[in-house]
Write a structure and sequence with these properties.
Length: 250
């Protein structure tokens, strides 16, 4: 078995890792009555392959990590923990510890509440209206939005036309299940973490010596080959994030 586990892999699935993700965004999984049945039928057995050749197992990680105890040396997840309610997040971190071998390493990437708060205060003091609007949206939009993409999508794509014709497949899907709300797509943030609160959660889940790294630094062997937290130009893949690493207690 691959010793590297990438949970909630999304667009960061890698061929050298065991990748697990939620269900792909497909209309059939959102259908009333039929959708839950199809999700249960596929859960733990279905998979898909990305353009890079990475095989991705489909599973609902809120129900646990679908592997035996002590199966991996490394567990990585990025921009997922904040989408879980706090009790779910705590159980998920405990599951990450369960599937790690003694001395195993986890790497957790989450939006950084402290950095976003500092950016908001700086924008407020600057008098720059556009920067202020963006800082507010960057801080709270993913917790309160009702439509897909929310205010951030409008700010990041100022020329976007919400009234432009939609692809046929999207129109059919919306006729069948309606226009999905943000609280139905899984995109909402249910909590936010700073360096203190994330470290406490890791310790409570059974990890020790939490430490923070740069996006391109890690104790994971060969991390510079995987580039999971980098864009092609070497800059951070995600905006304003914490990169925490901790080991299972021996």
């Amino acid at each position: 078995m691959n010793d590297l586990l990438n949970l909630a892999s999304g667009g960061q699935a890698h061929p050298d890792w065991t990748n697990v993700d939620f269900f792909p965004a497909r209309v059939r999984y959102a259908l009333p009555v039929v959708g839950p049945v199809m999700r249960r039928a596929r859960e733990g057995r279905g998979h898909y392959v990305t353009a890079s050749g990475a095989r991705v197992l489909v599973a609902d990680l809120r129900k646990g990590v679908p592997f035996p105890d002590a199966s991996f040396d490394v567990v990585y997840h990025s921009n997922f923990l904040e989408h879980l309610e706090r009790p779910e997040a705590r159980r998920f971190l405990e599951e990450c510890r369960r599937v790690l071998r003694p001395g195993g390493l986890t790497r957790v990437v989450v939006p950084d509440l402290e950095e976003k708060a500092r950016s908001y205060l700086a924008a407020l003091a600057s008098g720059d209206v556009a920067a202020h609007d963006f800082a507010i949206a960057d801080l709270i939009d993913q917790m309160v939005r009702t439509k897909h993409g929310g205010e951030l999508a409008d700010l990041l794509e100022p020329g976007r036309d919400d009234h432009a014709p939609k692809p046929l497949r999207q129109r059919i899907g919306e006729r069948l299940v309606g226009t999905p709300r943000a609280d139905e797509t899984g995109e909402l943030h249910r909590w936010m973490y700073d360096r203190e609160s994330l470290a406490r959660e890791l310790v409570a889940a059974g990890f020790e010596r939490p430490a923070y790294r740069a996006h391109n630094e890690s104790e994971i062997p060969g991390w510079d080959r995987y580039r999971l937290d980098e864009k092609p130009d070497g800059s951070p893949l995600h905006h304003a994030c914490l990169y925490a690493e901790a080991r299972v207690r021996s």
